[in-house]
Design goal:
Shape: globular
Strand order of the largest sheet: 20-21-22-23-26-27-37-33-34
Largest sheet: 9 strands, antiparallel
Radius of gyration: 25 Å
Helix content: 10-25%
Strand content: 25-35%
Number of helices: 11
Number of strands: 37
Length: 677
């Protein structure tokens, strides 16, 4: 029977602090500016740049000074080293970058609010001191106003999608904002933003494109005749320039066929390049810039090929979240045949790749698998970083003490903007950032040995065959011609199957990662981090089935063995030193599974009641054996939500293994420090 314990979160501190592992990385910027170096990001002094962190959404970007220091410290304690500033320009925020508070009418978005900028400046300073870098989201939800002199501004969607790509006035205003922001002087850092190496990346526009929905081929944007006619005129000129005869005046603007698809690639590239040139030449930014950040088709990916790096978003969910109907399918990564279709294909050969939004959102019961899996695959693929969407939408977190309801009501009329994506207080996600940061930032999982270039052949279609087979085996990236890229081992078409040794079992070519979709078990086996996740009590050997007794689960190298009484969970062990776990004298063991609010109720996939405080975490009850040369001098301490030692666990040392039992009646905890006394 499942047992839960209170696991409240505190906005100023984490239960365990691993910031000392990355102490030498403070302050952010000490290595110089980030530069693109082939398929990696590197600082000017040659240090590899890898980022694990969060988004701050809306009002979370403008905290009071005291909170800024606290949240920066808390992020560092969890192992984070990047924050993406997202939705700063959304008028539903309070504050936002154009308005500090609600009440006074805002007539233009051409002026940055000085109070908002002061708070953002101090946040940047606080993050920098803790070794946390910044990713700037240039255009998201900007709602143009009367004073902006934009045609039909009241008809435009937030961010003026998609006409911000083609309309000259909208492009001019984007340039103006960029100049204002990057030339802004931060009194707390003593630098203009453009001169501060705390900024490592920027995107030109968030989730905005001309290619439409990949299934219907339609745009989700509001049709406005003025802008559609302008678009046709630009299309007409391009056709004439290229000697192509086509009915530009009456054609379907949503078509995915040539020549429209080629025109959209062209005009998107022109827009990206113009904006990137402005940021670098006129604004003076000194870090990599990309275009947008989601996958719609290979055509949109191709439009990114001239950028410094590539960015994408990826969510593992299948829920419908409305004001009245709120459903979530409780689905596990360990049972899915392929987890990363869109994001994986967005990666272009020999370009750095970053995922600026990802999540396996609450209330999915199996979301604890998310942080570990994303970090491991990113390290295997040698990607450059992740930022989960989102840490929070605001800063008044001391009273926001339930999962999924950070805010009192939806924001901007969007039902899920009340806390569905908020992770700051979720033990099943943010509670596993310790190990995710170590796996990814420290490189505990090594890059795959073989590099495969996958040729995209259908620009307007989604073909994932090669990626579905190979992403968890080898390093994969997209190319658009038949030339084998430098440093890659082989070139294959996107329709090719990459052989697997066993159907349903995905194993990396160096043996550090295994995911078995039949047993619904995932394993990570590296010298410094060892993880077993999924249905941890359902792995039965043929001899034990008759007795109906779960068999212990062991990593291939034998460094970690568990015998779990709890059906689902993540048991992660990481060395907190530079040494492998077998000789480390300081380790963290986390055991986390389901988490929910007290009194939460579901009818199948439908949520009936969000519940009330306190947040509860399921206790993982298991026998644990870890291989160690340190011996019986290692002591195991449970750690509670406040960061107190909850009690010392009895241990035994025999045949090179330290054995102990977690989660019994006397020792209910999620975190265990294993320390030499």
């Amino acid at each position: 029977m499942s047992r839960y314990i209170p696991m409240p979160a505190y906005p100023d501190a984490m239960p365990v602090d691993i910031s000392f592992v990355f102490e030498d990385e403070k302050p952010a910027g000490k290595h110089g500016f980030v530069k693109a170096d082939g398929d990696q990001l590197r600082f000017e002094d040659g240090t590899l740049a890898r980022f694990w962190g969060v988004n701050f959404n809306g009002g979370a970007n403008f905290p009071e000074h005291d909170y800024a220091k606290k949240v920066a410290r808390r992020l560092a304690q969890a192992g984070c080293n990047i924050v993406r500033f997202h939705q700063l320009d959304a008028e539903w925020d309070t504050p936002n970058i154009y308005s500090f508070s609600k009440g006074k009418r805002v007539k233009t978005t051409r002026v940055l609010d000085p109070k908002s900028m002061d708070r953002l400046d101090y946040l940047i300073h606080s993050l920098k001191e803790e070794g946390i870098y910044c990713y700037m989201d240039m255009m998201t939800y900007r709602k143009f106003k009367e004073g902006d002199e934009v045609p039909f501004h009241t008809h435009l969607m937030d961010g003026a999608k998609p006409w911000s790509i083609t309309n000259r006035r909208l492009i001019q205003l984007q340039k103006e904002f960029a100049t204002q922001f990057w030339h802004h002087y931060n009194p707390y850092t003593g630098l203009c933003h453009k001169d501060d190496p705390v900024f490592v990346m920027a995107e030109i526009t968030n989730e905005c494109d001309l290619f439409g929905n990949t299934r219907s081929g339609r745009w989700s944007y509001v049709p406005i005749p003025y802008y559609e006619n302008e678009f046709r005129q630009i299309f007409r000129d391009w056709l004439k320039e290229n000697g192509i005869k086509y009915d530009w005046e009456h054609c379907d603007l949503y078509t995915q066929d040539d020549p429209m698809i080629q025109f959209k690639i062209h005009v998107t590239k022109v827009y990206y390049q113009e904006m990137a040139d402005h940021l670098k030449k006129e604004c003076g930014v000194q870090f990599p810039v990309t275009g947008t950040n989601w996958y719609k088709s290979s055509a949109l990916t191709k439009a990114q090929e001239d950028m410094d790096f590539v960015d994408s978003h990826h969510y593992f969910y299948d829920w419908r979240w409305g004001n009245t109907e709120r459903t979530c399918r409780h689905r596990a990564i360990t049972e899915a045949p392929f987890v990363f279709p869109n994001a994986a294909k967005m990666r272009i050969a020999n370009k750095p790749f970053f995922i600026s939004e990802w999540d396996m959102p609450w209330p999915n019961s199996y979301r604890a698998e998310g942080p570990i899996y994303y970090a491991a695959i990113g390290a295997l693929q040698n990607w450059s970083g992740f930022a989960i969407h989102t840490y929070s939408y605001g800063t008044r977190l001391e009273n926001m003490n339930v999962l999924g309801r950070e805010l009192s009501s939806p924001v901007g009329g969007v039902p899920y903007r009340e806390g569905v994506f908020s992770v700051w207080n979720d033990p099943a996600k943010f509670g596993l950032f310790y190990h995710s940061a170590l796996i990814f930032r420290r490189g505990d999982v090594a890059p795959a040995q073989k590099k495969i270039a996958v040729q995209a052949q259908e620009l307007a279609k989604n073909v994932f065959t090669a990626f579905a087979d190979g992403l968890e085996q080898h390093r994969l990236a997209t190319v658009f011609d038949e030339k084998l890229p430098e440093s890659y081992d082989v070139l294959i078409p996107e329709t090719d199957h990459i052989p697997q040794e066993m159907p349903g079992v995905y194993a990396s070519d160096h043996g550090q990662l295994i995911r078995d979709t039949k047993a619904q078990i995932g394993k990570i086996d590296t010298p410094r981090s060892k993880v077993i996740y999924g249905q941890i009590s359902c792995n039965r050997s043929p001899s034990s089935v008759m007795l109906w007794k779960p068999a212990p689960i062991a990593l291939p190298g034998g460094g970690l063995i568990i015998d779990s009484y709890t059906d689902f969970g993540v048991i992660a062990l990481s060395s907190l030193t530079d040494d492998p776990t077998e000789i480390s004298d300081n380790m963290l063991l986390s055991a986390i599974g389901r988490a929910r609010n007290t009194g939460a109720e579901f009818d199948g996939s439908k949520m009936l009641d969000v519940g009330r405080p306190p947040i509860l975490a399921e206790v993982i009850h298991a026998k644990v054996k870890l291989k160690t040369e340190i011996g019986e001098s290692l002591k195991v301490w449970g750690v509670n939500a406040e960061g107190f030692y909850a009690g010392q666990l009895p241990t035994a040392y025999e045949d090179g293994y330290l054995s102990f039992e977690i989660g019994d009646e006397m020792n209910p905890a999620c975190y265990y420090l294993i320390v030499k006394e």
